[in-house]
Amino acid sequence: MRRRACRLSIVAVPFLLTMAVSAPTAVADPAPDSVLPAALADAVARDLGLDPQQFLDRADAARRLAEFIATTGSDAVTNAWLDENGRPVIAVAEGPTHADVADAASAGGFEVETAPIEIPGTVLDVVQPLVDLLPFDPSPIAGPIRPSSYLGGDSFLAGTPAGLGQRCSLGFNAVDPTHGSVNITAGHCNPNTADTGSAALTGAYPMYGSLVGSKFGSFYRTSQSHNDYALIDVDDANVGEFESNAVRVPGAAPLHVTGTVDPIVGAPVCKSGSRTGFSCGTILSTGQNVTLGENVFDRSFSTSICALRGDSGGPIVSGTLAVGIASASNVGDQPSCEIAMVFSMLQGQRPELFATPINDVLADNPGLTIRTS
Predict the structure, then answer these.
(1) At the top level of CATH, which class does the domain 7-23+144-248+363-370 belong to?
(2) What confidence tens digit (pLDDT) does each residue in 303-342 have?
(3) 37 by DSSP, 3-state: which?
(4) What residues have CB less than 8 Å from 339, skipping those under 6 apart?
(5) 86: left (phi over 0), alpha (psi -120 to 50) or beta
(6) What topology does CATH give the domain 37-48+250-358?
(7) Distances (CA, A) of 8 to 26, 40, 112, 288, 358
(8) How far apart are CA 206 and CA 232, in angstroms?
(9) Where does the Peptidase S1 domain lie (predicted)?
(10) How many other C-beta atoms are found inside a 10 Å radius of the C-beta of residue 291?
(11) How many of the other CB atoms lie within 10 Å of CB of 248?
(12) What is the distance between the alpha carbons of residues 56 and 173, in angstroms, rounded to a whole number?
């Protein structure tokens, strides 16, 4: 299925650096490890009707589904999802291994379906065949949060020497074996993709409201084929500010990322973006074709999350696990999520955010690892 959506970057941002702007000198206290940050807990309650523990429990159920499929093999499973009550369900393929796989699924606490079925109506889309899923990787490579740290969800400007730029959101902080500290964001945020990897690299600059700070890095890889993502090489002088594994609403307490997981239909997810902050929903489908201008991304997953221009590149998490990078929305041009909800309802739709799976980005770049704790 090919879907057409609008990109979530804000274009034509004035690119003036006549005033030096430094990073904030204070950072919010981190939330206790067992509790979601207040801003995220509010979004989970508002958008999903769940308390923090229910959100974490459902996210963990989706993770266990992904790990089961990775261990068993995708040929043994036809579909997998969380139902409307958060119950993990597996449809086991017919064949010589059916009984063994069904027994293992039951022992793992999964509901077993023995025949192909449609996803429950609350999910709206038919489940796409699951791709081979990568295992959960909890390797700890995160550093401390400093007052000057940049975290996933923070606002930045992707600018060119010609003075053009697009406002986007930082994604997950990561480590590249060649470039060191990097940030993973959306590929369409780069307004100068033709020069990616050349001497005319697009620069990345922090934004504080309408003010632009000093350059912290440059785009060194931009993908607009199959997946929409870009990698920002952090300048040596700013490496210490990108060592954290956290995502946040700017100025609020952070959520620490503990690993990665592939998208599972029905899993609860939340995105952090510099325009709309935390907003949450569920994964509707995987393996989506999404058209952005002349580009077609054929590995996207879709969610019932509202996102607007400026949220592009922001991180999407399920529980404390990284799932993807915000890419495009069917309501991105609306002035607010409240108006977007009414507008989409009048059209018989609802807000929908399309995203790039984080594990696809890591697989495309051998050795690239997001920072985790």
Answers:
(1) mainly beta
(2) 999 998 899 999 999 999 999 999 988 877 787 888 877 8
(3) coil
(4) none
(5) left
(6) Thrombin, subunit H (2.40.10)
(7) 29, 21, 39, 18, 18
(8) 13
(9) 184-335
(10) 13
(11) 28
(12) 22
